[in-house]
């Protein structure tokens, strides 16, 4: 069944504030703040890809807090998942879209941010598929000063707790792709193995994908938790980037 409990097919139109660029083999959406800065944040999209309106809204939101914000096409021009696709095919689709195989793309974007944008401190946030990519990169890439993984974790590696830099994990209480048991296990193991600051927070009543909804797509009961999760995400970035 559909793991996303909001209707991804009916998104309100979003007029973006940024622009698209080509970086080596990647396309990317970039939004800059109104003043110059040497701080940047990479945004990793979910299965719906780098053009999905919700993810561009998040890129613009982060830029509004004073960061050069960039969402590269981590699918490298291949088809993102679509709301009309059948979930029975999702496993096969994932085999060709592995969130743990993003290192090369991350390096290309880090180089661009440093050489073309003058970035000295770079954080990363990711949603769902992108949250898994963030978890992976925070274990592998010391250039990333801090990370926020929103409802995405690596489940099948004993090495997944040795984070290199501060990482914040955001979850919805009613996310039926990540159980509370998995969240408790993550917390328990991080206590044992993690040597850098980390945080885990579960937002009451929230489903998978809750935190990137645009204001006009929010339900009134969910709005306070969505806004809280975003504030928490930005606060974590501000603390470490």
List keywords for this structure.
alpha/beta; globular; 8 strands
Question: How would you summarize the topology of this molecule?
Answer:
Layout lengths: L18 E5 L2 E6 L7 E6 L8 H11 L4 E5 L17 H6 L7 H13 L5 E7 L1 H12 L3 E7 L16 E6 L7 H14 L4 E6 L19 H18 L1
Parallel strand pairs: 3-4, 3-5, 5-6, 6-7, 7-8
Antiparallel strand pairs: 1-2, 2-4
Task: Walk me through what this model shows.
- The protein is α/β, with parallel strands linked by helices and 241 residues long.
- The chain has one domain (19-240): Alpha/Beta hydrolase fold, catalytic domain (Rossmann fold, 3-Layer(aba) Sandwich), CATH 3.40.50.1820.
- 31% of the residues lie in helices and 20% in strands.
- The chain contains six helices and eight strands.
- The chain has helices at residues 53-63, 90-95, 103-115, 129-140, 180-193, 223-240, and strands at 19-23, 26-31, 39-44, 68-72, 121-127, 144-150, 167-172, 198-203.
- It has an eight-stranded mixed sheet with strand order 1-2-4-3-5-6-7-8, sandwiched between helices.
- α4 links the parallel β5 and β6 (144-150).
- The longest helix is centred in the C-terminal third of the chain and has 18 residues, at 223-240.
- The termini are far apart.
Largest sheet: 8 strands, mixed
Q: Low-confidence spans: pLDDT under 50, at least 5 residues?
A: none
Query: Mean of residue pLDDT?
Result: 92
Annotation field: number of helices:
6
Oligomeric form of this entry? Answer: single chain
Strand order of the largest sheet: 1-2-4-3-5-6-7-8
DSSP strand content: 15-25%
Radius of gyration from the alpha-carbon trace, in angstroms: 17 Å
Bulk shape: globular
Q: Which bin fits the share of residues in helices?
A: 25-40%
Task: Give me the secondary-structure category.
Answer: alpha/beta
Our measurement of the CA-to-CA distance between the termini, rounded to an integer number of angstroms, reads: 38 Å
* CATH-derived architecture: 3-Layer(aba) Sandwich
- CATH overall fold name: Rossmann fold
Number of folding domains? Answer: 1
CATH class wording: Alpha Beta
What's the total number of strands? 8
InterPro entries: AB_hydrolase_fold, CMBL, Dienelactn_hydro
Pfam family, one: DLH
Protein name: Carboxymethylenebutenolidase homolog
GO molecular function: hydrolase activity
């Amino acid at each position: 069944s559909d793991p996303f409990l909001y209707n991804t097919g009916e998104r309100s139109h979003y007029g973006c504030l940024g622009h698209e660029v080509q970086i080596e083999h990647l396309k990317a959406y970039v939004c800059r703040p109104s003043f110059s800065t040497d701080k940047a944040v990479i945004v990793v999209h979910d299965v719906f890809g780098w053009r999905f309106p919700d993810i561009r809204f998040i890129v613009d939101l982060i830029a509004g807090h004073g960061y050069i914000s960039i969402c590269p096409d981590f699918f490298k021009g291949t088809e993102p998942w679509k709301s009309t696709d059948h979930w029975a095919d999702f496993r096969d689709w994932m085999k060709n879209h592995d969130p743990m195989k993003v290192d090369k793309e991350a390096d290309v974007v880090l180089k661009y941010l440093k050489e073309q944008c003058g970035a000295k401190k770079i954080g990363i946030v990711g949603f769902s598929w992108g949250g898994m990519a963030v978890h992976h990169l925070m274990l592998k890439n010391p250039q990333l000063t801090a990370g926020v993984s929103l409802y995405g974790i690596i489940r099948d590696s004993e090495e997944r707790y040795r984070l290199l830099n501060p990482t914040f994990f955001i979850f919805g209480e009613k996310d039926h792709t990540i159980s509370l048991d998995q969240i408790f296990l993550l917390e328990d193991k991080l206590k044992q193995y993690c040597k850098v600051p980390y945080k885990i927070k579960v937002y009451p009543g929230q489903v998978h994908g809750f935190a990137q909804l645009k204001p006009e797509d929010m339900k009134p009961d969910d709005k306070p938790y969505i806004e809280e999760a975003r504030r928490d995400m930005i606060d974590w970035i501000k603390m470490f980037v």
